[in-house]
Amino acid sequence: MSDPLVVSGVAKSFTMHLRGGLRLPVVDNVSVRVARGECVVLGGPSGAGKSSILKMLYGNYAVDGGEILVTHDGETVDLARASPRQVLQLRRNVIGYVSQFLRTVPRVSALDVVAEPLIARGHDAEASRQQASALLDRLNLPHALWSLPPATFSGGEQQRVNIARGFITEHPVLLLDEPTASLDAQNRRVVIAMIDEKKRAGTALLGIFHDEEVREAVADRIIDVTAFRPAREAA
Amino acid sequence: MTGEPFYNFAYLDEQTKRMIRRAILKAIAIPGYQVPFASREMPMPYGWGTGGVQVTAAIIGRDDVLKVIDQGADDTTNAVSIRAFFQKVTNVAVTTDTGAATIIQTRHRIPEHPLIDGQIIVYQVPIPEPLRFLEPRETETRTMHALEEYGLMHVKLYEDIARHGEIATTYAYPVKVEGRYVMDPSPTPKFDNPKMHMSPALQLFGAGRERRIYAIPPYSDVVSLDFDDHPFTVQRFDKPCALCGGDDVYLDEVIMDDRGTRMFVCSDTAHCDGRRSEGHVGKQAAVEEARR
Amino acid sequence: MSDQPLMTARGVTKIYGERIGCEAVDLDIYPGEIVAIVGESGSGKTTLLNCLSARLAPSAGSIYYRMRDGRLQDLYAMGEAERRFLMRTDWGFVHQNPADGLRMGVSAGANVGERLMAVGERHYGRIRDTALDWLERVEISTDRIDDRPNAFSGGMRQRLQIARNLVTGPRLVFMDEPTGGLDVSVQARLLDLLRGLVGELGLAAIVVTHDLAVARLLSQRIMVMKDGRVIEHGLTDRVLDDPREPYTQLLVSSILQV
Fold first, then answer.
1. How many independent structural domains does chain B possess?
2. Active site residue B241
3. Does B158 contact C122 at a Cβ distance shorter than 8 Å?
4. How far apart are the C-alpha atoms of A118 and B19, rounded to whole Å?
5. Same domain, B173 and B125
6. Least trusted range by pLDDT, from A30-39, A151-160, C249-258
7. Which residue, A20, B52, B242, B253, could crosslink B263 as a Cys pair with Cβ 3.0–4.6 Å?
8. To the nearest 10°, the Cα dihedral for B244, B250, B255, B260?
9. What is the rounded average pLDDT of the residues C7-20?
10. Is ipTM over 0.85?
11. Could you report the per-residue pLDDT of C35-54, keeping only the tens digit for each?
């Protein structure tokens, strides 16, 4: 059985048309393979393109070249060339993503933000909310906040909502962009435990963790993204 | 007065009459459909029945017997002047007796006496378009008729019920003719709507200012629109006519004095007179009889 | 996600004399998906919306719609009666100015009930119950059912217009700047309501907006128009976070940050 996520030769650059077509290469020849039950961590200094890599793997950034093969239920799709609808389907069923920042929606409560991915996959709304409650409870988000829209929450509170939203589903591939950055020690340990559970359940995880404690605890392998530095800076 | 040499029989020239008759024939062929016609200036103001007058002028012959009513009465200003007009320009026989008439021109009523085969009733129509109340665009209402999109008509009835608890439209109550066109029966009270259904008489409608003619051929299906849970009903009067004692007729309210004494009498004066000459006596009539 | 598009447009072009309204636009809309059309005034987005919604015959190109029975029908080849029936049953059209989509002279209840009556509902009680239900769903107090929309605020009118459109359970809704002209707080409420209804009813929608925040919140896919042409299209977050075309980059960089 092939690995759920196989990335090979992926390149990314930005062309800044508003600055006279300035081309900024970000990464080149990115090759990563993540097996079921494995947590691979992207390492390297800030600005090396770690977040950009995750965004490409989620279809949020377009790629210049290379392959992003996502395998699920025996079917392999190259996300680098997938249509928008295929990407949406992959996001719904295969690839989960916990971003650094929560994008809030006006008037939607924290609980519903967390439950939404399950409901979108056709789960019962009430059962989904119960699952969401359990997760928020586990992440120690005060009950008083559950029914409020997270727009006014602190960074740590928003991040916990975001983590709960990312972990509530059973996506076979999970991308984590610094999920523990603004958490205290207690909640970091909760997240480490949750990642361990995902690994045991066979989820393929690819993440960025600046916190050394967390990285040591969850990483099976660390890939230094400076290896993907573009060959030469463009003129 | 000898001859009125300047006017053709029935005032309109023969070509105009032919034009109007062609419109009438088309209207009869498409029951309830408003046929445009080249309405002429008539020697009376719009609102006085210029549409009905042109229809009557186009169909009247020397052997016809004409009856003209306004609000059911033969002796009101409008009725008297139109009757006088036709007497002058056709010299045909006139009558107030519904049964004796061959053509009845009317504003606001259908006579109580049942119409019969061979009679023609001509309605004067101010606004022929039943959808106009909610849709001001003529292009749109024409399309709606063409495509049989009549939901809007029920919007009006819905508003009535929402506002008044019942369908409060009491006159110009919309009907569907032969299961196809929705039509405004002119400002007749809805009391008269059932008389239009399967009437043996030919019913013609003329709107002078709006330049439309429409028709209901004899023995046509005419259904008043309604809701399943608010079916069409006609108004009932709790008292009979004060003069002739007639039941099941449409009554007018008449104020008798400054103290607000009122009586209700037949709106159809010919019908009332007929009954009284047959010896029927209403309450008020009996009082007056006794006083004499 | 159904694999058969609800609507398929190819080469849609509208020319006004010398001027191009929109040119060679291809678009597939699938059931349950929301596509945003963005661009500045005059970029052709409203012209395109009008062509797609059978309100404006294109000069060239074809638009096919999958009817409820599964047939794929050429919009502009079907009879006017069928097209109008489609427009008031299977489609909705939400105008920027609610007065263009409402009957201002009749009550809120009648506005919601009109489409039901147009498809033959003849039971007053049922029409009223449905209207009450819809007023509640769009967060209009049910005791306003007999009030006319000219007594309503802009936000309420817009919500009423939405209810009036959704009452027949359409599968495709066209929206032209649905939040234009509303206060920001009213906008947020409307957007949230729209998002909820669209998700709950599984509607497909084509939303024209110049507001990229509206596009991000409502749509999964986005088409960027300039001078009548689609210059960039793709996943909404991809286009907004990694815009490729010069014009798209300009649009995205012009958003005010709060």
1. 2
2. yes
3. no
4. 73
5. yes
6. C249-258
7. B242
8. 100
9. 95
10. yes
11. 999 998 889 999 999 999 99
